[in-house]
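Hi V.,

You were right to ask for the full record rather than a summary. Here it is.
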Amino acid sequence: AYLIPYDGDPNYAAETGKEMNELYDELGDLGAASVTVFLDACFSGANRNNEMLLADARPVFIEVDASATHDVTVFSAAGGKEISSAWPEKKHGLFSYYLMKGMRGEADVNQDNQISIGELGDYLSINVSDMAGMLDREQTPGLETLNSDEVIIQY
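Predicted structure:
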């Protein structure tokens, strides 16, 4: 699986993209107290308009092995067989839109002025999935973490 930026060429993923296992290895080796990745991307082989990135290609669905993330916390926008949807009305992806709202405090369910990884993950899962359904799409954000109780934001 590769992350291919907007201006990357999917025909040359190894040259213009970043291989996911390599990314997680590098992040895990940083020696940081914690590393969190917010990934508003999908592995369906299609863009947000449901157009294939490669002409005449069949969809390729990739499930990322959770063990590949090591001790890096990863919030991802969609499951392996889903598209990371845009929300044209808000001029954002669904995931990014709700991520920002959640981080501003809406994910603080118990209102203790701090947001745990688990609270943010639950907030994203519920809100992104619900709005995707209203837009006639399926999108289920994912969360890979070793500690869902860890506080990620205090305010």
